[in-house]
Automatic annotation (TrEMBL):
It holds the Pfam family Ribosomal_L33. This is Large ribosomal subunit protein bL33. The gene is rpmG. It comes from the Bacteria. One of its GO terms (molecular function) is structural constituent of ribosome. One of its GO terms (cellular component) is cytosolic large ribosomal subunit. PROSITE patterns: RIBOSOMAL_L33. Belongs to the bacterial ribosomal protein bL33 family. Keywords: Ribonucleoprotein, Ribosomal protein.
Length: 55
């Protein structure tokens, strides 16, 4: 089981709009070694904004 969690860790994506809203997802460390940034919907801001991985 340890190999599964090492390659695809659970990451938390926090809104860059400053609302404090977060998404939780998994990422592949081999394909995305840097911090992940995705455009997703922020229901507090009621708009699509960039969500950045926090550590």
């Amino acid at each position: 089981m340890a190999a599964r969690t090492e390659l695809r860790p659970v990451v938390r994506l926090r809104s860059t709009a400053g609302t404090g809203y977060t998404y939780v997802t998994r990422k592949n460390r081999r394909n995305d070694p840097d911090r992940l940034t995705l455009l997703k919907y922020d229901p507090v801001a009621r708009a699509h904004v960039a969500f950045r991985e926090e550590r």
